[in-house]
Write a structure and sequence with these properties.
Helix 11 links the parallel strand 12 and strand 13. The longest helix has 17 residues. By secondary structure, the protein is an alpha/beta fold. The N and C termini lie close together (10 Å). It has two domains: 168 residues, Rossmann fold, CATH 3.40.50; 164 residues, Rossmann fold (3-Layer(aba) Sandwich).
C-alpha cells in the first residue's frame, strides 16, 4: 500500500459511552501505520477524554468547534473526509447515518469499513468486522453487498497484549483479584464492587483500575475511608496488559476489556450494563471463560456472584481462549483492508 493512502477513523469516546471504541481504533491505526505506512487521521464528534488519548498517540484529530446542538453527522463526516483526503473510512461509532449518503461515498471511491456495529449503516460497508457475538446472525443483512467477517479471529487487540500474554504469569502465591470497569464507568460499578468485596471474609489482594474518564473520584475516596479491606488503586495506566498478567480473577464491565481479559487468560465476572452487552457476554460464558452479571439482576446478588467467582477459580478455564484462533486480530483486519484497497485500485 502506498504512503499516499489515507485512513480516516470515525469514532467517539466519552464519559457516558466509555473509551473502548477509541482504544480499538488506536490498535488498528498502529497496525496500519507501522505495517502498511498509512497516513492516519481521526474524526471525533464528541468526547474530550477520547480526543486527548488520540493526541497522546500523535495522531491528528478532526473535531467539532461549534455548539454540538447544531452538528450534523453527515456534514461532519463529509468535512472530515475532505480535510483528511482519505480513501478509506473506518466507522466505529454507534449513531446511525444515512445509507444514501454512505452509498454516495462509495460511488466516489471511498472504501467503508464498519466495526462491531448494530446500526443500519453496516449495510453500506465494503467490509464489516464483528466479534463472535450472537447478535450478528440475528441482524437483517438484506441489501448488504460487502464482506462480513465475524469471529474471535477478528477481535482487535493492542499489541501489548499479544506480547505479554505468552510470558510467565506473575504470582506472589496469594489470590489476586482485578477490578476494572472500563475507561469511564458511567454507572459507578467500581463503587458497588468495592462495597461488595468489603463484605467478604476471603483472603485475597485486590487491584482496582480507574479509566481516564472516571468521574466518581469524590465518592470513591469517601468509600475507601470506610472499608476494612485494603484496595490498590491505579489510575489511567499505560500498561494494562502487565496489570492483567498479575491477576488470577477479574470483575469487569463488559466491553473491549472483556476481550483483553479473555486473551490474557483471566477468568472474569462480567458486569453487563445493557441487554446487548449481556447477549454478547454469552459467547464468553459458552466458552467457559467467564460468568455474567446482568444489569436487571444487580440489586441483591453482587456478593453472591463474587463469592461464586472466587470458588470457580479452578473451573473457569482462561486458557480456552488460546485454542479458538483468538490472536493477532488487528493484523488480520488490517491485511483484509489492504487487500480490499488494492483490489479497488
Amino acid at each position: 500500500m502506498s504512503q499516499t493512502n489515507s485512513i480516516l477513523f470515525r469514532c467517539d469516546g466519552a464519559e457516558d459511552i466509555g473509551l473502548g471504541h477509541i482504544v480499538r481504533c488506536l490498535a488498528l491505526a498502529e497496525e496500519l501505520k507501522d505495517e502498511y505506512d498509512c497516513r492516519i487521521t481521526f474524526a471525533v464528534l464528541r468526547g474530550k477524554p477520547g480526543i486527548e488519548m488520540i493526541k497522546g498517540k500523535g495522531y491528528p484529530v478532526i473535531t467539532v468547534i461549534n455548539n454540538l446542538d447544531v452538528f450534523n453527522q453527515e456534514e461532519f463526516l463529509q468535512n472530515a473526509i475532505q480535510e483528511s483526503s482519505c480513501n478509506v473510512v473506518i466507522m466505529d461509532f454507534r449513531e446511525d447515518i444515512s445509507l444514501a449518503f454512505l452509498h454516495a461515498l462509495r460511488i466516489q471511491g471511498i472504501i467503508l469499513v464498519d466495526i462491531d456495529d448494530p446500526q443500519e449503516k453496516r449495510l453500506a460497508a465494503d467490509l464489516a468486522f464483528y466479534p463472535p457475538v450472537p447478535q450478528v446472525k440475528k441482524m437483517d443483512w438484506s441489501g448488504f453487498q460487502g464482506q462480513l467477517m465475524a469471529g474471535w479471529e477478528w477481535v482487535i487487540l493492542r499489541k501489548e497484549f499479544i506480547t505479554i500474554a505468552n510470558q510467565q504469569r506473575i504470582s506472589n502465591g496469594r489470590l489476586h483479584l482485578l477490578v476494572t470497569m472500563g475507561g469511564s464507568d458511567p454507572a459507578g460499578f467500581t463503587l458497588t464492587v468495592i462495597e461488595a468485596l468489603d463484605l467478604l471474609e476471603d483472603d485475597f489482594d485486590t487491584t482496582v483500575v480507574l479509566g481516564a474518564a472516571f468521574s466518581w473520584e469524590k465518592e470513591l475516596n469517601s468509600l475507601l475511608l470506610r472499608t476494612k479491606r485494603k484496595f490498590r488503586i491505579l489510575r489511567s495506566i499505560e500498561n494494562m496488559a502487565g496489570v492483567m498478567a498479575q491477576a488470577d480473577l477479574a470483575i469487569a464491565s463488559f466491553g473491549m476489556t472483556a476481550y483483553e481479559l479473555a486473551y490474557m487468560g483471566v477468568p472474569t465476572l462480567f458486569v453487563c450494563l445493557t441487554d446487548d452487552h449481556a447477549e454478547s457476554c454469552q459467547a464468553f460464558v459458552d466458552a467457559g471463560i467467564a460468568m455474567c452479571l446482568k444489569n436487571n439482576n444487580m440489586d441483591n446478588n453482587w456478593v453472591d456472584k463474587i463469592q461464586v467467582l472466587l470458588s470457580q477459580k479452578g473451573i473457569l478455564d482462561g486458557n480456552i481462549a488460546r485454542n479458538i484462533g483468538f490472536e493477532n486480530g488487528a493484523a488480520r483486519v488490517a491485511s483484509k483492508l489492504i487487500e480490499r484497497v488494492e483490489n479497488n485500485g
